[in-house]
Design goal:
alpha+beta, 4-stranded antiparallel sheet, elongated
């Protein structure tokens, strides 16, 4: 488990404790007290959801996944599929037996975040988008 995930889990744990401790101490007749409680609950729920939101997308591909075009070969990954916004960072790796080696290929994205990867030759590997 990553350090980031551990810190998120610890923070959510403290938020849940705060919600539990605040229930008997909230003045349910005062709107500011109720709004503060609701805000804490919403923040806690948002933090819990953030633990499960992916921060990377990995696409494993084979040679037959490439499309042939006038400049060579391309892979196309829609923003809707990777779900990481309109300015993704892209790394491409060539599969060499059981190992992966990062390779220098052209990659770009449009204003919506759709990713296009171009190469001069076919190969199997994976693309990691973050």
């Amino acid at each position: 488990m990553s350090t980031k995930k551990i810190i998120q889990i610890i923070a959510v744990t403290f938020l849940i404790i705060a919600v539990i401790l605040l229930v008997p101490n909230t003045n349910w007749q005062k709107s500011s007290s109720v709004l503060g409680f609701i805000s804490l609950v919403c923040g806690t729920l948002g933090s819990i959801i953030s633990i499960f939101v992916p921060t990377t997308y990995t696409y494993n591909f084979k040679e037959d996944n490439w499309a042939n075009d006038s400049n060579g070969f391309t892979l196309y990954i829609k923003a809707k599929k990777h779900g990481l916004g309109n300015s993704p960072q892209v790394q491409t790796f060539l599969k060499d037996g059981l190992m992966y080696q990062e390779v220098g290929v052209s990659s770009n994205h449009d204003e919506k975040g759709n990713v296009t990867i171009g190469a001069n030759s076919l190969f199997s590997g994976k693309v990691v988008i973050s």
